[in-house]
Amino acid sequence: MLEDPTAAAPHLAPPSSWPATYPQGYAVVDVETTGLARDDRIVSAAVYQLDARGTVQDHWYTLVNPQRDPGPVWIHGLTEEMLASAPRFPEIAAELSERLADRVLVAHNAAFDWSMLAREYARTRTAAPVRQRLCTIALSKELGLPLPNHKLETLAAHYGVVQHRAHHALDDARVLAETFRPSLHRAAETGLRLPLLACQPLTEWSDGPAIGRQRSYRQTWRPSRKRPACPYPNPGRYEPGGQLVQGMRVAFSGDTSVDRELLEDRAVEAGLHVATSVSRLTSVLVTNDPESPTSKTAKARSFGTPIIDEAAFMQLLQDVTPAPPTNR
Question: Which residue stretches belong to region Disordered (predicted)?
Answer without folding.
Answer: 214-238
